Amino acid sequence: MATPSEPAADLGLFDAVVNLCKRRGFVFPSAEIYGGIRSTYDYGPLGALMLRNIREAWWRAMIQERDDVVPLDAAILTNPKVWEASGHLATFTDPLVDCRKCKERWRADQIEDTCPNRGSNDLTEARPFNLMFKTFVGPVEDESAVAYLRPETAQGMFVNYLNIETTMRRKPPFGIAQIGRAFRNEITPGNFVFRTREFEMMELEFFVPPADSPRWQQYWCEERLSWYQRYGIAPEKLRLRPHEPEELSHYSSGTTDIEFAFPWGWGELEGIANRTDFDLRAHQDHSGTSLEHFDQATGERYLPHVVEPAAGATRTMMAFLLAAYDEDEIAGERRAVLRLHPKIAPYQVAVLPLSKKDTLSPLARDVLHRLQPHLMCEYDETQSIGRRYRRQDEIGTPFGVTVDFDSLEDQQVTVRERDSTEQTRLAIEDLVGHLLARLGA
Ligand code: ATP
């Protein structure tokens, strides 16, 4: 039985979204023609567009609309000394158990002492399994050539702290933000793109005077929660959950997760951690380089504390899709519709000539070319107009622009809105301004 705070399981919704993702080109199993590679996915044309929009929305809120955050794009291959200092080599582990009956491996903290395959309790002792992917740099595969793919983007920001503070003339409070791929050799990936071994993160490290970190952590919890709502997730599908002391990562003095009501229950979208001065102190000690900030106003030297909102872009994409999926009935016909925020939807507009006849194509293409500099457009002239509307509804395109035979005479087109299906006739001349205004662009 679901408790009042537990969302009711809706595996029908999960299946519908996973199916839509494959069928319409959002997400494909990676290297599918070779049978795929376990729990690894490629983002198809619509997924690539949507991920780009998610990155863009995050970048806008975290960098463009602020004057206290600067961006960074650090390397994925990292000097092992970074992971030694950060504690990841020693402690970035999950507890691993084997089922002696079916030989499957599980994360001990996820299965409550019972193998999900067999229901058997015949499990090995839990042992720590390091989640970092190891590789070799250069042609010789020996210990001196070992490097790791980053399991989080954060360390790139800590090791560049001094470079950025100096070159950008910053002082706390200020932040460094980064979006990029991260890699974790997860023991049990699954639930589609919820947990994969390669995924994309969007992280901010916000450096503050030590005494101010609790206030900033509170601030970032509120900011980040409102970001998900701004882009269309209903407040009742989101919650903040403070970590229990025993769940805290090795670097954190306190973490609050933003959770989403996934079809199988609440799941983390983002963690907002108070990393204290753990990382800067570790890098200062290991590198021998002082990372202290000198406050000219007070004459004080201190290591800044860090508040870190760390979100997964690929997991967020899944949450946006689940939150947006709906089925309704239009003129007696069932339709699937993604009620995505227009800034998150893969396409903002579809240009749809009423018929494929040559007479309409030149004007329809002219309309398309007017829109393309401003908005991501799809052009579709095959099948009946009703079917084409449904196809666009299903991928979340907020507006359809129909060019018909009257358009040739009156230079007007019909704009159809996805959710209400309401239609508005207007002059082609006014189309760009009209759509930009309605999209809030
Ligand atoms: P979890 O408890 O789900 O393993 P975590 O607490 O280890 O996640 P963080 O280290 O806080 O995760 O990472 C920040 C964010 O990165 C998570 O909130 C999530 O959105 C995303 N993320 C983490 N691991 C994965 C993964 N394996 N696949 C997809 N996204 C992930």
Characteristic terms for this protein:
single chain; 441 residues; alpha+beta; seven-stranded mixed beta sheet; five-stranded mixed beta sheet; 32% helix; binds adenosine-5'-triphosphate
Model description:
This protein has 441 residues and is an alpha+beta fold. Helix content is 32%, strand content 29%. The protein has 14 helices and 24 strands. The strands form seven sheets. Strands 3-10-11-17-14-13-12 form a seven-stranded mixed sheet. Strands 21-20-22-23-24 form a five-stranded mixed sheet, sandwiched between helices. α2 packs across α10 (313-324) and α3 crosses α9 (278-287). The chain is globular, with a radius of gyration of 25 Å.
Task: Offer a concise description of the structure.
It contains 14 helices and 24 strands. With 441 residues, the protein is an alpha+beta fold.
Q: Quick one: biggest sheet?
A: 7 strands, mixed
First-residue to last-residue Cα separation:
44 Å
Q: State the helicity in percent bands.
A: 25-40%
Can you count the beta strands? 24
Flag low-confidence runs. none
Beta-strand proportion: 25-35%
Strand neighbour order, sheet with most strands: 3-10-11-17-14-13-12
Bound molecules: adenosine-5'-triphosphate
The helix count comes to 14
Alpha-beta classification: alpha+beta
Gyration radius, to the nearest Å? Answer: 25 Å
Shape label? globular
Mean pLDDT: 94
Annotate the secondary structure layout.
Layout: H1 11-23, E1 27-29, E2 41-43, H2 45-64, E3 69-71, E4 77-78, H3 80-86, H4 88-91, E5 93-98, E6 105-107, H5 108-111, E7 127-130, E8 134-136, E9 146-149, H6 154-159, H7 161-167, E10 174-183, E11 198-208, H8 213-230, E12 238-242, E13 254-262, E14 265-276, H9 278-287, E15 293-295, E16 300-302, E17 305-312, H10 313-324, E18 325-330, E19 333-338, E20 349-353, H11 361-371, E21 377-379, H12 385-394, E22 399-403, H13 405-410, E23 412-417, E24 423-427, H14 428-439
Parallel strand pairs: 3-10, 20-21, 20-22
Antiparallel strand pairs: 1-2, 4-9, 5-6, 5-7, 8-9, 10-11, 11-17, 12-13, 13-14, 14-17, 15-16, 18-19, 22-23, 23-24
Helix pairs in contact: 2-10, 3-9
The structure holds adenosine-5'-triphosphate.
